[in-house]
Amino acid sequence: MKPGHTGWRHLVHSTRYSIKGMKAAWFHEAAFRQELVLFLLLLPLAGWLGDGPVEWILLLGSGLVVLAVELLNSAIESIVDRIGPEHHELSGRAKDLGSAAVMVSLLLAGLTWLLLLGQKLFG
Description:
The chain is mostly helical. The protein has 4 helices and no strands. It has helices at residues 7-28, 30-49, 53-83, 89-122. Helix 2 runs antiparallel to helix 3 (53-83) and helix 3 (53-83) runs antiparallel to helix 4 (89-122). The longest helix is centred in the C-terminal third of the chain and has 34 residues, at 89-122. It starts with 6 loop residues before the first helix and ends with a helix.
């Protein structure tokens, strides 16, 4: 982005870069595609499962957290791969930590959905 871009110009350019990143994730990251499709499929269920706006945003928010963390993990992997293809302990650790972050976000989403589902079914 050019240094002179502020205000609306900055917003327009930032939005353009964000859309470019989403497209890159869709075309190059299988895990992101899987998680996005699952998120979209669960949207109607969130409407039924969530009793009120707070529960609804918990369900949707947990899914959006998964997508955001997956995007960050993909960014880490891209940077590490850009540095070089040879095996390095720190490169492997960075990728493993990114993967662990995705797993933690998936646990959060899973627990959120399971707890609200259990509350809906069993009171």
